[in-house]
Amino acid sequence: MTELHALFSEYWPHVLFMVSGVAGTAAAVHAAMTKQDVRAAVAWVGVALFSPIFGAVLYLVAGINRVRKQRITQPRAGTIYAEDVIERVLVQDVSAVAGAQFSTLKVLGDRVSHFKVLNFNEIQKLRGGDETYPAMLAAIRRATQSIALQTYIFDHDVLGAEFAQALIEARARGVQVRVLIDAVGSKYSRPPIIHMLLKGGVQAALFMRPLFGLRLAYANLRSHRKLLVIDGVHGFTGGMNIRAGFLSAVAKTDVTQDTHFELKGPIVHQLIISFAHDWQFTTQEKLKGPEWFAPALGQLAEQGIPMRCVASGPDSTLGSTHNMLLGALSVAQRHVRIQSPYFLPDLVLIAALSTAARRGVVVDIVVPGANNLKLVNAAMMAQLDQLILTGCRVWQAQGNFDHSKLCTVDGGWSYVGSSNIDPRSLRLNFELDLEVYDRGFAAGLENQIDTVIARAERITIRTLRRQPFWLRLRNKVAWLASPYL
Q: Are residues 420 and 455 in the same domain?
């Protein structure tokens, strides 16, 4: 033992060199063979080779997509549907309700999404917390069978406490309640609201709880989905977290704006399927039974709206929203409207937007004037010139920060939900969006976006170039970090 210790003491630099070389090379090879994004592959290979020990450990903790390996083996969401339900509500052709150019977009969605386009749905737009939260609380208080709630942020403030109390009371009267909160989002307020829920008897869990105490392993992968399903037949989804800052009675003149949606019809089945997958992944509990999946569709709307859910995330649904946006831009003929609080498209999306504008399509992009994430706003400003120079019109909204995520094409197709147009939403976050084929619904969103544009300030090349050099440099530095924001 003494001889071994003496040998190691003499040759430890050589041993360390060999171990670091093997570890760094192994990490670099794994990154090169498994990463689909060449920028991510190059970055991880560089870190592993030029900082072997630290790089290999960092890659082991944060670079390996364990989520994709675990979730990709789950059954496709569509298998939960009964055949008779599919036959009654499945939409084969959307050209009559949306426009002829959207037929091929539906085919793309059929191949990208786990869900099919279903008819006979109702959708109600809810503007801001003043409309959204009362509707959600009323639905929770009317629940008789089940409540499924999933959110990124569930603040422990006056609004969060009201929601938690309503869920606790529902549980007390015999309603099955499940609440899923993102592990990172739960830290936005102290103490986390999950303690109140668990103490009140509600079954609640954190999505992506740290692995073996290593928060970094999953801290970069988050559930950004927001949905509420009542009794399997009444749903809500969109962009709103549960935060008092969205209530004018609390935030007063600083209230944050957003857009959420209330749903009824077959589309609610897709919402609860999405929740059930995430809940099973997190807790290993499989939700089943009529209290969660209503066996009958009930009264169907006579003038129903065709739509589907599109789930995306770093698993088997990787790139779903990215593909849907590319498809929509490729079929656009007249007008594309996009409103996004965090607008950081990658080069492929920039090229698609620019190509649409060069084809003569009017491309309007609305970004916030007042942004709650200063670093993201700086990065956004740094790359807007790439779009403006090709003919896209970029508008900076005035007034309070608006968290809405909205997209419409040619007055017939809409895309709404939780996804931002940035690297985090498009590749790292678990997101849930709605693809809606309906002229009336699209017209309502277009009117909302156009109202914002009417009061907005247009950003031009001159606007960008008149900024001080130090400000443009700061924006470019922030832009360099945009894949990680």
A: yes
> Who contacts 418 (Cβ-Cβ below 8 Å, separation ≥6)?
152, 224, 225, 226, 237, 238, 239, 405, 425, 429, 431, 432, 433
pLDDT of residue 44: 63
Residue 2 confidence (pLDDT) = 64
Does residue 468 lie within any of the structural domains?
yes
pLDDT for position 373: 86
Cβ-based neighbours of 49, under 8 Å, separated by 6 or more = 24, 25, 28, 55
Is residue 190 in some structural domain? yes
The dihedral built from the CA positions of residue 412, 416, 421 and 425, taken in this order, carries a sign that is negative
pTM above 0.70, yes or no: yes
pLDDT in tens, 158-199: 999 999 999 999 999 999 999 999 999 998 998 999 999 999
Q: What is the pLDDT of residues 114-139, one digit of tens each?
A: 899 999 999 999 999 999 999 999 99
* Type and span of the H or E element at 485: none
Which pLDDT score, from 0 to 100, does residue 85 have?
59
Q: Are residues 262 and 328 in the same domain?
A: no
Residues 325, 270 share a domain: no
Q: Is residue 436 part of a domain?
A: yes
Looking at the structure, tell me whether residues 260 and 326 fall in a common domain. no
Residues 183 and 135 in one domain: yes
Do 371 and 259 lie in one domain? The reply is no
Looking up residue 200, the CATH number of its domain turns out to be 3.30.870.10
Q: Tell me which residue range forms the domain holding 142.
A: 121-301
Confirm if 59 and 48 have CB atoms less than 8 A apart: yes
Burial 435-461 (b: 16+ CB within 10 A, else e): bbbbbebbebbbebbeebbeebeebee
Asked if residue 296 and residue 326 are part of one domain, the reply reads no
Interatomic CA distance for residues 280 and 66, integer angstroms = 16
* Cβ count near 141 (within 10 Å): 13
Give 243-296 pLDDT, tens digit per residue: 999 999 999 999 999 999 999 999 999 999 999 999 999 999 999 999 998 876
Residue 349: both structure tokens together? 């999306």
**H-helix or E-strand spanning residue 343:** none
Tell me phi and psi for residue 152, to 5 degrees.
Answer: -80, -50
How far, in Å, are 164, 204, 232, 237, 380 from residue 240 at the CA level? 16, 19, 20, 8, 22
Query: How many domains, in total, are found in the chain?
Result: 3
Last residue of a domain, one of 31, 64, 97: 64
Question: Cis peptide before 191, with omega less than 30 degrees from 0?
Answer: yes
Q: Which residue has the tokens 């109140």?
A: 196
Residues 58 and 170 in one domain: no
In a domain, 97, yes or no: no
pLDDT at 69: 45
DSSP of 366-415, one letter per residue?
EEESS-S-HHHHHHHHHHHHHHHTTT-EEEEE-SS-B---EEEETTTEEE
